[in-house]
Specification:
The protein is mainly alpha-helical and about 90 residues long. The chain has one domain. The protein contains six helices and no strands. Helix 3 packs parallel to helix 6. The longest helix is centred in the C-terminal third of the chain and has 22 residues.
């Protein structure tokens, strides 16, 4: 679920770039899945490469430079920051 939501042709970052709406439930499901993975990997020395790759440049995947209203820009930035925080927890930084 995490890889599907963050990587690939229909991922959330791609949908943001192409201005396709992101539902709050999709983000909530992503956060919940990440919380499960954080617990699962907390005592392990490594995570799968594709899972780690999902977080490469995550902030820029969500914070776009095109014209958008202030509320939407804040929402996307808040998501990016939350995902960065979860990445730090998952990857042990």
């Amino acid at each position: 679920m995490v890889e599907a939501r963050l990587l690939g042709p229909e991922s959330i970052p791609v949908r943001i770039r192409t201005r396709i709406a992101i539902k709050d439930v999709e983000i909530a499901e992503l956060y919940a899945a990440l919380d499960v993975l954080i617990v699962h990997y907390q005592d392990q020395d490594a995570v799968p490469k594709t899972l780690a790759a999902a977080f490469v440049d995550i902030y820029n995947g969500f914070v776009q430079r095109f014209e958008q209203d202030a509320e939407q820009a804040r929402r996307l930035e808040d998501m990016a920051i939350a995902l960065q925080d979860k990445a730090y927890q998952l990857l042990g930084a």
